[in-house]
Amino acid sequence: MSSKDLKQLEQRLVYLNALENSNKKSITELGKTMSIFPLVPRLAKMLTLAHQENCFPYVIAIVAALSVGEVFVKEFQLDITRPGETDDESEDDDDVSNQRYRLDDMDEMELQHITNEKVLKKEKRKLTRRKFYKAQTVHEALDPLNDMAKILNVVGAYARETNKEKFCTENFVHYKAMQEIHQLLGWFRITLPTVPLCRIWCLTLTWTSRRLAS
Q1: CB neighbour list of residue 131: distance below 8 Å, 6 or more residues apart
Q2: Other CB atoms closer than 10 Å to residue 168's CB: what's the count?
Q3: 145: helix, coil or strand?
Q4: Phi and psi dihedrals of 173, rounded to 5?
Q5: Do 149 and 143 form a contact (C-beta atoms < 8 A)?
Q6: How many CA atoms lie within 13 A of 130 on its CB side?
Q7: Which residues form the Helicase-associated domain (predicted)?
Q8: Per-residue pLDDT of the chain (214 residues; tens, 9 = 90+)
Q9: φ, ψ for residue 170 (rounded to 5)?
Q10: Are 14 and 21 in contact (CB under 8 A)?
């Protein structure tokens, strides 16, 4: 790691109030508490300050999700879109013009009766698109503009499911990511009770008071 990279990391820790903004760059009380968590600094600070706002369980779930990377399957990863193709589009090609199907009237069982391969591929894409958009509506039920609400929604739903792999497939979320999230949640539940939360509470109050006074 270059000296420039180290300088940037140092400045980031200063910005997070984990280091003092002085030539000495001493670690702050907030920084000491952040160091308890084996996470990147911004996520460690989220956990530290969550206790102050009485939202620890929610932030733990969010931090676990942010730690594993991408949770939701993206539309482009499904190969379900073609230029100019819409769900109510009719084909002009002679090979398929005599086989027209409405997506709303079709399910996976009915797809088995389609003999034209081109039509079948198109209708499978349309059916997957419909399921994908329906899943997005469910994910956004708490707040369509809040990505953290989407994460909380799907993490909570996953925990209640018995067939978790099927849940991930039907809801277009990454199964491996969800497994890692809940492994992290299990680790948090075991580890966090040993963290001195009274210390976190006191130092966050001190930190907030300083911010308000500045």
Answers
A1: 170, 172
A2: 21
A3: coil
A4: -125, 155
A5: yes
A6: 15
A7: 8-152
A8: 788 888 888 888 988 888 888 777 788 888 888 888 778 888 888 888 887 777 888 888 888 888 888 999 988 888 766 555 555 544 444 443 333 334 444 566 666 777 777 877 887 788 888 889 999 988 888 888 888 889 888 998 998 889 999 999 999 999 999 999 988 888 777 776 554 444 433 443 443 344 444 4
A9: -70, -25
A10: yes
Sequence-distant contacts of 35-43: CB under 8 A, at least 24 apart:
36/195, 39/63, 39/67, 40/67, 41/12, 41/13, 41/16, 42/16, 43/67
Q: Which two tokens stand for residue 138?
A: 């469910």
Instruction: Yes or no: say if 103 and 87 are a contact pair by the CB < 8 Å rule.
Output: yes
Q: Residue 146 is which amino acid?
A: N
Q: How far apart are CA 213 and CA 207, in angstroms?
A: 10
The first and second tokens of residue 212, run together, are 């308000």
